[in-house]
Amino acid sequence: MTLRIERVTDAATVLRGAHLFDEAIDPAATERFLASPTHHLLFAYDDEVADPMYPVGMISAAELTHPDKGTEMFLNELGVDELAQRRGIGAALVRALVDLAREQGCSGMWVGTEPDNVAAQATYRSTGSDSSEPFVAFTWEF
User: CA–CA separation, 133 vs 141, rounded Å?
Assistant: First the structure.
């Protein structure tokens, strides 16, 4: 496998990776996301597959700035094509995001995941993260 990770800057590329997201791609949300310099979307490509423009993984994140914490990178979503899982693609995307967070001057990076999502937890631990604190999430849906 020859992995290539690139930042996504246009909606057409996002659509080529629609299979990597949890929900259907919303064109207006895509344009808004891509327009913000503090939003980041990276796609992973395996140059050894039949179509080198077919993304096999993605990671999305946003820089969050707070008056007393500075700027942190929030890892919003990580997705790897089912046929490409368990090959280190998710970990490579996380490491690329860590590098980007450092380049952007972030003081740290964080992510939340479900307690039973063993694969996600293993991926994050393999990249140097340690979940030393319990995490509780509350959500509001509108």
Answer: 26
From residue 82, how far is each of 10, 19, 42 by CA, in Å?
24, 10, 18
Give tens-digit pLDDT for 14-31.
999 999 999 999 999 999
Two tokens, residue 4: 């290539």
CA 62 to chain centre: 9
- What pTM was computed for the model? 0.87
What CATH architecture applies to the domain 3-126? 3-Layer(aba) Sandwich (3.40)
Strand order through the sheet with 3-7: 3-7, 39-46, 55-66, 70-80, 109-110
Contact, 134 vs 115, CB < 8 A? no
For position 86, what pLDDT does the model report?
86
Q: What is the mean pLDDT of the chain?
A: 89
Q: Are 1 and 44 in contact (CB under 8 A)?
A: no
DSSP 48: T
Domain ranges, ordered by start, for the chain: 3-126
